[in-house]
Amino acid sequence: MAEPRPRVKICGTTSVRDAVHAAEVGADALGFIFAPVSKRLVTPQVAREAGLSVGPTVARVGVFLNQGLGEVLRLSEAARVSSVQLHGALLPGFVQTVAGYYPVLRVVRPADLQAEAAAWTGQPGVTLMLDAPEPGGGVPLNWAELRPLFPPGAWLAGGLGPHNVREAASQLAPAGVDAVSRLEASPGVKNPQAVKAFVDAVRGL
């Protein structure tokens, strides 16, 4: 039986226009980055408006880096996200606590993949996402090298774009794929043609 196609997440969305276009061409999820260090930082008000503009069938993911529980919950509620993506070195129990409020995408680096997969496999409300050591940097991972370690049901990010997402998916069979930098005209501004090409490439699997 063929693997189901990966879900498609367009991350770093900063405007209603880009959100609507991504939804129109078939994206399954939008990522809104609330980490203050990001070049793609968005306000919860804009994220909320963008989320309302695409309707309930498109997931709205709040993206955080090393932020406290109160801040994560406050911004997530204000933005009306449907799930939360957590980057960084987090205290024990933090992910489980957030998962009590929202489904969590826990982002891990290749060096941590084996240990994190063992820790989270079967845990309710938590899905792993493998990303590059420098998220948003546009550098793809060595998918063939990671294939023996990649857990079923995990998502994949890191340097994905229209030109390579099919190869990445064929190597690792991720449950979802996430792209940012290779879909942009400039940081935080999407290239509509690249977004459509990315979604079309995944849907063609």
Automatic annotation (TrEMBL):
Residues 8-200 form the N-(5'phosphoribosyl) anthranilate isomerase (PRAI) domain. Pathway: Amino-acid biosynthesis; L-tryptophan biosynthesis; L-tryptophan from chorismate: step 3/5. PANTHER family: N-(5'-PHOSPHORIBOSYL)ANTHRANILATE ISOMERASE. The keyword Transcription does not apply. GO terms for molecular function: phosphoribosylanthranilate isomerase activity. Its EC number is 5.3.1.24. This is N-(5'-phosphoribosyl)anthranilate isomerase. Belongs to the TrpF family. Keywords: Amino-acid biosynthesis, Aromatic amino acid biosynthesis, Isomerase, Tryptophan biosynthesis. The gene is trpF. Pfam families: PRAI. It catalyses: N-(5-phospho-beta-D-ribosyl)anthranilate = 1-(2-carboxyphenylamino)-1-deoxy-D-ribulose 5-phosphate. It is an enzyme of class 5 (isomerase). CDD domains: PRAI. GO terms for biological process: L-tryptophan biosynthetic process.
